[in-house]
Amino acid sequence: MNIHAKRIKDLQYLLKQRKLDAMVITRALDTGFFTGYHMDDYLLLVSRDGAWAVAPQMFVEDLKVRAPFVEPVVPAGGFEATVQELCKKHKLRKTAFDPEYETYTRGLIWRKYGFTEQGGLTGSLRAIKEGEEAADLRKSCRIAARAFGLIKPRIKTGRTELSVYRELEDIMQDMGAKGPSFNLIVGFGPDSALPHHITSERKLKDNEAVLLDYGCVYNHYCSDITRTYFHGKPTEEFKKVYSIVARSQKAGLAAVRGGVSAMSVDKACRDVISDAGYGQYFIHGTGHGVGLEIHEFPRLNTKFEAVLRPGMAVTVEPGIYLHGKFGVRIEDSVLVTKTGCEILTKTA
Amino acid sequence: MNIHAKRIKDLQYLLKQRKLDAMVITRALDTGFFTGYHMDDYLLLVSRDGAWAVAPQMFVEDLKVRAPFVEPVVPAGGFEATVQELCKKHKLRKTAFDPEYETYTRGLIWRKYGFTEQGGLTGSLRAIKEGEEAADLRKSCRIAARAFGLIKPRIKTGRTELSVYRELEDIMQDMGAKGPSFNLIVGFGPDSALPHHITSERKLKDNEAVLLDYGCVYNHYCSDITRTYFHGKPTEEFKKVYSIVARSQKAGLAAVRGGVSAMSVDKACRDVISDAGYGQYFIHGTGHGVGLEIHEFPRLNTKFEAVLRPGMAVTVEPGIYLHGKFGVRIEDSVLVTKTGCEILTKTA
After folding, report:
1. Alpha-carbon distance A219 to A317, whole Å?
2. Does residue A119 belong to the interface with chain B, where contact is any CB pair within 8 Å?
3. For residue B293, what are the contacts with CB-CB under 8 A and spacing of at least 6?
4. Which pLDDT band holds residue A348 (cuts at 50, 70, 90)?
5. Which CATH architecture has domain A128-343?
6. Mean pLDDT over residues A174-203, rounded?
7. B196, B283, B288: which to substitute to probe chain A, counting the most A Cβ within 10 Å?
8. Which H/E stretch holds residue A96?
């Protein structure tokens, strides 16, 4: 069975489990996940035994070829009214929408139609990567990991962050990536101390930290990796901080396996850094799910409640940031397994 | 004054006009528009005489440098609760949120706090391009327009759509673009007849239509252009359809000026195509606003009510699609002026 047709079946199974008759899916990422047709401005209605794409006329021919398992319906009136008509026609009495991803305006319309709020269904399906999507994610991560070996020797004194950014993109595209998976971060010297630095025209000087936080999109799947190193002769402080972050990241990776809480992985990373006296400089969470979105369910931090399941893909990325001096972050994307994890972004 | 500081002033003026005390802004595109700090996961609260960025600790240093005209506030509890506290502290009794861009879940929280719904404020500010942003948009469009002259001679029999896609991206990046402004469409032969074709591994044959719908992002501003031509000796049918679309697009461009309705531009394009007997093959609207987003306010179609104002940037892009054969679309991005428009994507 086509993977997208299977995903609709999986959703239909969840509908039965949750005693829902149908679900309306409106976010482009989610409609693309279920149909393989990645496009804004169309809706899906999935019932226990049917699936309709409420879409403008100009999508119909393409939908028929790409997603023959959904029935295209061109709305006569509005999109929402057409969904309501389909529900009436097919006697779908309990139809759900996801309040986290629906706009307030449209949520009010669904409520007016008597639809119910039900979060997390598509998120939980999207969290587990299997078959082709695991393969695409692996490939996306492999491209990113290989790019590090290629770009590093080309980062020389005097080059700007933006020129490295662009070359990283090119290198990944040459290996088949569609593009970058987010606004890649290239930070030199003190710029490396800003976890969300915006890559600039800053030129690399001798004896500065270099931080590369980047990834690509391959067949819709995002990779995420960070490497930090010292350009020149590392200072004692850099060496010390680097080794703490490396130990922290290793501890985090060792903590990942099916059945553990996301928080326990954060704790494993955070404890190493706190014990070394740098707790206050680790100013973000340890990681996040990665897939069709660069940041998706679950989060790995001190608060987010979730259990890691085999097949989930997450990042492990502790860091220490010394403002005005340098920052160190080490990040890998990994696939959770029963007994541990598979590191997808291994570099030499 | 910094353009972002000015935009906040403009919003504060609108708040007074609408008798609002404050507005909470949550969409990344909008927070970036008002601060110049383009990043997910932080909120803005703008009152008539203040502006706060409710942001995680790791954004604070960067925000101070990039947006000194907003006061960073690190949330102790949740983001939403912190906004509510700020409202209480500063006696902001009537605070608005945009229901079109807020999630249903968060909209319910704002309503619980007593906030009111107010759509369109940021959209109306974003629609008018001025100063640096008009310059960035012009540059973005110029890069896209120049790319056509460079790519066209390289599109030869046997090349795949995706290889042209990638080269187009490279050409635009070499001219300073950050990346493509959307999933560029390269359609050969019958693929050109799908207005939202997904670029594929299809190889160009002799005597086929070539449609390129593409654009780039330059300093956050999106360009959008479509060119169609025949690779080889054009058929009589292609020549006929092309000349109708060209006349239609010319009529649309001639109809654009400050003060006219968006619908009247659509009508100008549509009448030419309908009069020529191809009305049923023009299966989409005539255009859309373009700026920080590739599709933004206003829309130019048969239903959307809006008046074009000098400074708005819109596309004019009629098309005729003969399924299984070929499609022709001609699109330019233009800046509305008092007396007409400035074509931003002029090609030789």
Report:
1. 24
2. yes
3. B29, B222
4. confident
5. Alpha-Beta Complex (3.90)
6. 92
7. B196
8. strand A95-97
Average of per-residue pLDDT across B250-275: 98
Q: What is the pLDDT of residues A213-222, one digit of tens each?
A: 999 999 999 9
Model-level pTM?
A: 0.82
**Would you kindly state where each structural domain of chain A is located, as residue ranges?**
3-126, 128-343
pLDDT tens digits along A69-94: 999 999 988 999 999 999 999 999 99
Interface test with A, best of B62, B104, B117, B296 (most A CBs within 10 A): B104
**CA of B329 to nearest chain A CA: how many angstroms apart?**
13
CATH 3.40.350.10, domain A3-126, yes or no: yes
- Tens of pLDDT, residue by residue over A293-312, are 999 999 999 999 999 999 99
A28-64 pLDDT tens trace? 899 999 999 988 889 999 999 999 999 988 889 889 9
Measure the CA–CA gap between A50 and A90, rounded to whole angstroms: 9
Count of beta carbons in the 10 Å neighbourhood of residue B65: 9
B206 in contact with A at a CB cutoff of 8 Å?
Answer: no
Q: ipTM of this model?
A: 0.80
Q: B284: which chain A residues are within 8 Å (Cβ-Cβ)?
A: 56, 58
Residue A198 pLDDT grade (very low, low, confident, very high; cuts 50, 70, 90): confident
Q: Two tokens at B62?
A: 């960067």
Question: B136 with B292: CB under 8 angstroms?
Answer: no
Q: One-letter amino acid identity for A285?
A: G
What's the CA gap between A68 and A37, in Å, rounded? 11
Confidence of residue B298 (pLDDT cuts 50, 70, 90): very high
CB contact under 8 A, A100 and B105: yes
Residues of A in contact with B211 (CB under 8 A): none
**Contacts of residue A104 in chain B, CB cutoff 8 Å?**
97, 99-100, 102-104, 106-108, 117
Coil, strand, or helix at residue B83? helix
- The percent of residues above 90 in pLDDT, for chain A, comes to 87
CB nearest to A39's CB, from B173, B196, B283: B196
Calculate the alpha carbon distances from A131 to A122, A135, A311, B307 in Å: 17, 6, 10, 50
Query: In which residue are the tokens 């956050």 written?
Result: B220
Q: Is A318 helix (H, G, I), strand (E, B) or coil?
A: coil
pLDDT on residue A2: 84
| pLDDT at res. B40 | 83
Provide the 3-class DSSP secondary structure of residue B68: coil
Cis peptide bond prior to A298, omega within 30° of 0: yes
Q: Nearest CA of chain B to the CA of A43: how many Å? A: 16
Which residues does chain A have within 8 Å of residue B283's beta carbon, measured at their own beta carbons?
56-58
Count CA within 13 A, CB hemisphere, residue A158: 0
| Residue B215: exposure state from Cβ atoms within 10 A (0-12, 13-18, ≥19) | buried
Helix locations, chain B, DSSP H: 3-17, 28-35, 57-66, 79-89, 104-112, 121-127, 131-151, 161-174, 236-255, 262-275
Q: Does A283 touch chain B (CB under 8 A)?
A: yes
Angstroms from A330 CA to nearest CA on chain B: 16
Cβ contacts (< 8 Å) between B39 and chain A: which residues? 196
Chain A interface includes B309 (CB < 8 A): no
